[in-house]
Amino acid sequence: MAVLARASFGYLLRHPWQLVPALVGVCIGVAVMVAVDLAVDSARRAFELSMDAVNGEATHQLVGGPGGIDETVYVQLRVTEGITGIAPVVEAHVVAAGMTLTLLGLDPLAESDFRAWAAPGTLNEGIERVRALLTEPGTVLVSGRTARMLGVGRGDRFTLQANGRDVEARVAGLLSAEAGGEDARLDGLLVADIATAQEWLAMHGRLSRMDVRLPRVPAAALDRLTAALPPGVQLLEAEGRTRATAEMTAAFTTNLTAMSLLAMLVGVFLIYNSIGFAVVQRRTVFGYLRALGVTRGGLLALVLGEAIVLGAAGAALGLGAGFWLGERLLALVSRSINDLYFVVNVTSVTLDPGSLAKGFGAGVAATLLAALVPAAEAAGVPPRLAMTRAALEAGTVRALPWLALAGLVAAALAMLLLGLTERSLVAGLAALFLLVTGLALCIPAAVRLVARAATPVGALLGGAPGRLAVAGIGASLSRTAVAIVALGVAVSATVGVSVMVDSFRESVRAWIDGTLRSDVYVGVDRGTLDPALARDLVEVPGIEAWSTSRNVTLEGAAGRVALTALELPPGSFAGIRLRDTDPSATRQAFEERGAVLVSDSYAYRHGVAPGDSVLLPTAQGERRFPVAAVYQSYDAELDSLLMSRRTYDVFWDDPGIDSLGLRLEPGADVGATIDALRALAAGRQALVIRSNAEIRQLSMDIFDRTFVITDVLYWLALGVALVGLLAALLALQLERARELATLRALGMTPGELGAMVIVQSGCIGLLAGLAALPLGVLMAWLLVDVINRRAFGWQMELAVGPKALALALGLALTAAVAAALYPARRAARASPARAMREE
Amino acid sequence: MFRPLVTVLTVFSLGSPAGVPAQEPAASPRLSTVLSDRDRDGYAEARTPRPFSFPADHGPHPEYRNEWWYVTGNLDDADGRRFGFELTLFRFALAPEPAEEDAGKAAAGSAWRTRQVHLAHFAVTDVAAGRFRFAERHARGALGLAGATAEPFRVWVGDWWLREFPSSGEDAGNAWLLHAGTEELGATLTLVPEKPPVLNGENGLSQKSADPGNASYYYSISRIATRGTLRIDDAVYDVSGLSWLDREWGSSALADDQAGWDWFALQLSDGSDLMFYRLRRDDGSTDPMSAGTWIPARGDAVPLARGDVSLEPREHWESPRGGRYPVAWALSVPRLELELLIEPVLRDQELDVSVRYWEGAVDVSGRRSGSPVDGRGYVELTGYAE
Questions:
Q1: Is A750 on the interface with B (CB under 8 A)?
Q2: Higher confidence at residue B326 or residue A654?
Q3: For residue A71, what is the nearest residue in chain B, using CA coordinates?
């Protein structure tokens, strides 16, 4: 066996160009998988860590409505009810030095049960810290790393924006949860006394929540606490709340993971291709070995052994590359999460051994899987000289219909899977892979048929070399079939994803255009508009009509709902895109009868239709609201509802306004109005004022940012396919060295020979691209109608533009020609005499 | 007695036994590093005797840095089951109250904004069960979470409180009501004084070291008839007995060379009461500023100086948490022909709260002018924990 192994690796080392593509395939597949895993994991972990710090030891939390809880409820619980193990919290996001930070307003005297790090670390320092926090308004504690990010040290002052107002903070001390070390949990956290937080946020009299730590035997304590709660205040499990927030991103991350699997899938084709070729090359050797007494099992083990070593080496490289890529992806992922879901401060990739092991294992397993067929082929070599190439070719051609049939079966299975499941995202993704892979398996057969039919065309256009080039495609399918499948998958993926993104983009654009009815929007960065200021702003001359919007999250035992309360001027209701309901009746129910509108995704996920009702936690306890209609929405938050402001004010005690929409009188100057608004707000609140066009642009920017990750991933898949094609062409050329030499001997110039190789490859690319187009459109349809619907509940129109199709065709052609350049040069330079002497 | 150390340390370590692993060794800090004289700036100071006025002076004096209401007592139920209890309510200013013009500015601020911090210790000794249990609470003096008012008299931390009773009517203010409790421990007691308040030291000015500012205002009500219920786990006991109130406020701390104190509050069977505190220096010797008061059954109280009293530890108790406390004593006052042996009803009456100290019920026996006398009392031992 040692001799066998030496022979085997000796061969592979002498033919590095066969080794490299396989290595690259495993490497890229593993790298993308590990990178996505690490990035998603790190973002999630950063979020959980920060929640860990923010929640501390709390087992439960008391939450109120959107306006928080009246602080007298806390006093009532503490003093009248004598309940201990509760702590008041005022929490909000603030902006400092361009970063969004979490301001945590605590009562240090109630903290000992909750956040040990918020209590003083050492006595002498602790005295000064607590003294400063309580007696000096505007003092904060930050972690050492956060202080460095802000560029401040102990005792320094800095400016931060809280609820649209600039306030001055002073660093009273540095936080550290662990002795001597930095703690990632505390990154991005500003800890202040609750009085400071209330004053900064203008939250006088209100708490964001109360943290609760129930004793070990909670039943009695739980009953006592719930019995003492006023209506509108709910006791929820802290862990459940954290989980609910983290799960907002579940669909987003599942889709990312699916993308990474796509890269792995393309990698598998590449590995199969390389190992298969390495087997074919050594058929003669294997024949001798069999004659010398090596068993079938021995050969099988030999090839699989090669695959394992190759897979392990490639996977190891992939881990390194994956880490590098993961760091880059993390920035994209966390930006998307910040754009769409919640604030997360991620400073570094967490090296999770689980992710690494998973990536490595997947790489080796994929290699083994890809090597199974070639290994069986090697084991099947009869103990004599190998079959001729012609026989092999004939075998492959015979196999093509079967391959296509297997592909069709896979596609049928995919459709069955789609028919049998209704909401499972994983089943949807599995069906997508099955369908794409299955149909891609049909491409070689299609290419062969087309090539045969097109041979006369080739002759017509390119004379003898042209005819040879086109006819050679069919003849060389044993080598190129796999590369064609890989290229087909990669190209169809780019088509599918770009058509999906385009469709999505168009739907979102139309939705935004319809929804944005005002000319100017006014809001506050990470805060709410002062209602008194809002009343003054709408009096600015030139304003014809105005609307307000309040976006809140309602939490109940049943989960979370994103509620938007709208105060609309006449005519603006039409901006809400309703699905199949009478607008005027809906409007009346919405404005006058307290009905709500549910988003597409809400309706889809909860099976709610007009005429049903939804249960919402209000300030007076749980209440039922009738559903008037379903409206079109692409909110990242899945369970969204619209309610009229009038209804909202009846059931919730919350005067907050998130944004004010202003419609200007015809002919009014947008710039001048914005200036007037700014002048009015000066010294009161820092407003974020944007024109309709700016909001539109901003929305589309966020949309595009979300898909940057997708772009990166499918370009990587295409890269893998390109390497695969290059390897296949090189292999083909090597096999055909004698044939090419003969052509040279017959008088073909090196230029003509090179051109023939390029034309042939270009034809392969063109054919694969053509075959991939319908496949891509199919994939786009699946992504739009199945995956997006299952993941987010979004509904959009499939829009297939010629641009995406042309681009895909161009990509396939370019990739094929690019992959042929080097082989063509080699073919042209080869010395015909030596090539003919070989073998 | 005066207990600034307890107060200061309790406030700042905020009761987190499992809390933060300190970056520096959390060695018992020198009091001088915790409270330097500089810290007295801005506070009122106890420098000269002042007129006391009741009930007004039962209420808070926020211009001074520290203040406390200390109730300790020995109780029995009808079956003769013996209990001791302690409820201590502290007020502590983190900074001097703002000047008038600043106070106006603060009015626009959060209702949580305050410089006053309150904390409380509650302990019950169950002699028959051989168990001593304690709890601690803290809260800021804002929003009604904790506070103190003179009229009507009320001092509270959460739902632990001491207040006048009944709160209205003819008898208003004649008695006090005390309430404290946890899940497993509770006390609701009516307190009716049997003697008027007694001013300790020089007409209530209690000098703690040679430094003129290092003093406090200090009065006691040494004999208070007490009746009510104690709750221990699920059992409720109807109890009665005698309590002692110590009231003290000031802005100073121990001197640099003082390590702690031993405080005795004894109620004797002949109707007289004795209070004495021994200030202990770093070297273990008795500070000359140690002092006390003898309160006869009838008539004027007699101040006792360091030289009037001799104290001898008789027995020590090793705390499993570290530290060695002298828990039994021989005390004699030759001037009064008084010789007493003081023994704890339970050796472990150590409160393991933010700062550890021993405060427990004791039995007293001995002779007064040749006749046998006995009694009960409370002893506080600080500065021994290691």
A1: no
A2: B326
A3: B143
CA A770 vs CA A154, A404, A502, A774, A779: distances in Å: 65, 17, 20, 8, 15
Q: Find the closest chain B residue to A217 by CA distance.
A: B183
A196:B110 CB<8 A: yes
CB B4 within 8 A of CB B253: yes
Q: Which two tokens stand for residue A373?
A: 């067929």
Q: What is the ipTM of this complex?
A: 0.87
Over chain B, what is the mean pLDDT?
85
pLDDT more than 90, % of chain A: 14
Q: Is A78 near chain B, with CB under 8 Å?
A: yes
Determine the Cα angle at A334 with ends A330 and A337, to 5°.
145
Range A32-69 burial, b when 16+ CB lie within 10 A, else e: bbbbbbbbbbbbbbbbbbbbbbbbbbbbbbbbbbbbbb
Cα B85–B91–B92 angle (5° rounding)?
130
Record: contact B109-A134, CB cut-off 8 A: no
**Is the Cβ pair B145, A79 closer than 8 Å?**
yes
Q: Which residues of chain A does B148 touch, with a Cβ-Cβ cutoff of 8 Å?
A: none
Question: How many Å apart are CA A323 and CA A313, to the nearest integer?
Answer: 16
Q: CA–CA separation, A177 vs A186, rounded Å?
A: 8
Say if A198 is an interface residue toward chain B (CB within 8 Å). Answer: yes
pLDDT per residue over B218-274, tens digit each? 999 999 999 999 999 989 999 999 999 999 999 887 777 888 899 999 999 999 999
Q: Looking at chain B, which residue has its C-alpha nearest residue A108? A: B14
pLDDT bracket for residue B24 (50, 70, 90)? very low
Helix, strand, coil share of chain B (percent; to 5) = 10, 50, 40
**What stretch of H or E contains A323?**
helix A296-340
- Using CB atoms, pick whichever of A108, A121, A195 lies closest to residue B113: A195
Report d(CA A46, CA A335) in Å as an integer.
Answer: 13
Of B20, B115, B183, the CB nearest to A134: B115
For each of the domains in chain B, give its residue range(s) and CATH number, in order of start.
8-33+53-381 (2.40.370.10)
Please give the structure tokens belonging to residue A281.
């090359």
